[in-house]
Amino acid sequence: MGDRKATKRLRGASVSARRWVGRDVAFVGPSKTRGAALLLVMWLVALLTALIGAFALTARTENLQGRVQVRGLVAHNAARAGVEYALTRVAMSDQKLQWLPDGRPNRWRYGDAQLEIKIVDENGKVDLNQADAQLLTALLQATGKMEQSEAARLAGAIIDWRDADTLTQPAGGAEDADYASAGRPYGAKDAEFESVAELQQVLGITPELYARIEPLVTVYSGRTRPEQAFAAKEVLDAMGLNGADLVRQRERNQPGSQLQGAGAGGVGGGLVGERSGTYSIESRARLADGRESVLRVVVRAGGGAVPGMPYTPLRWEEGASTR
User: Fold this and answer.
1) Residues 238, 224 contacting (CB under 8 angstroms)
2) pLDDT at position 53, please?
3) Cα Rg, the chain, nearest whole Å
4) What is the pTM of this model?
5) Are 238 and 217 in contact (CB under 8 A)?
6) I need a surface site. Which of 40, 106, 168, 233 has the fewest CB within 10 A?
7) What biological-process GO terms show up in the record (predicted)?
């Protein structure tokens, strides 16, 4: 009898234990599942937030890049319009409206762009293929701030580059052996300069010196001496004239006026000089937001290779700045 009662008690305890265990499982299991699901949802929300943020940043960046490109294109087109406008003004028959190709700044408004345009006739520059040693030496002295002997040696190197012989100039120069000694993989060209940029290959011409002399020289005029009416101060000085006085005198006279006779600097015939029809033009366009575009070109007026183009481009450099 006692054993039966004990057995019943054990069975009852077992059933109770199973009930409590069942309750425990029923209570703990769903709670853990809900916690894991919540954590997963939070991770998904964080991931989506990051993706949306990255997409928004990319879209904003692309929008800003697009605006920069569009405004840059507007500035570039304005600068190019300045080149064509300069060619129109320099060719005007009305001398009061005509722009003089002597390097003075001219201002013009095109749309929302303010332009500063400078135009120089190539006849006003020193021709690298035609100038003699004396003129080249004087120009190098005026621009390079160097001793006469060093300037003469560099002038000789320029002449040795373009002449057909292998003889060094009397005042010094540079032929093939000199280039080899300097470790250059080339020698003197022994042919004419095809471009002003070629001057950088001449032995002794440093980047700093080239930057100063480049605006003053040409390969397009074919003249042994520059045209005084369009020459810069340094070129006039190299020609033995008082460059500063002549430039001031030129600036005091507006387009259409003439200086009669020979002035203090010895310039006769007034402001009107022999034009080549080939011009260096710097057209700088600035938009209201500060963005700029600059074109530096050398063009020959007249029909171009492309039908309808009013000029033939000989050199074309462009640049831009953004804000």
Assistant:
1) no
2) 81
3) 39
4) 0.74
5) no
6) 40
7) protein secretion
Helices (H), the chain: 2-90, 133-144, 148-162, 176-181, 207-213, 233-238, 243-252
Chain-centroid distance, C-alpha 45: 48
- The angle that helices 133-144 and 148-162 make with each other, rounded to 10 degrees, is 130
- Asked if 112 contacts 75 with a C-beta cutoff of 8 angstroms, the reply is no
Q: What's the rounded mean pLDDT across residues 130-134?
A: 97
Q: Which domains does the chain have, with CATH numbers?
A: 126-225 (1.10.40.60)
Q: How confident is the model at residue 262 (pLDDT cuts 50, 70, 90)?
A: very low
Residue 103 near residue 232 (C-beta atoms within 8 A): yes
Between CA 78 and CA 117 the distance in angstroms is 11
The tokens 């033995």 sit on which residue?
A: 240
Report CA 147 to chain centroid distance, whole Å. Answer: 32
112 against 17, higher pLDDT: 112
Per-residue pLDDT tens over the stretch 29-44 = 566 677 777 788 888 8
Residue with tokens 């490109």: 69
Task: Copy the structure tokens of residue 252.
Answer: 């005091």
SS3 168: coil
Which contiguous run of DSSP H or E holds residue 311?
strand 311-321
Distances (CA, A) of 257 to 96, 134, 270: 8, 33, 8
Closest CA to 271 of 283, 259, 286: 259
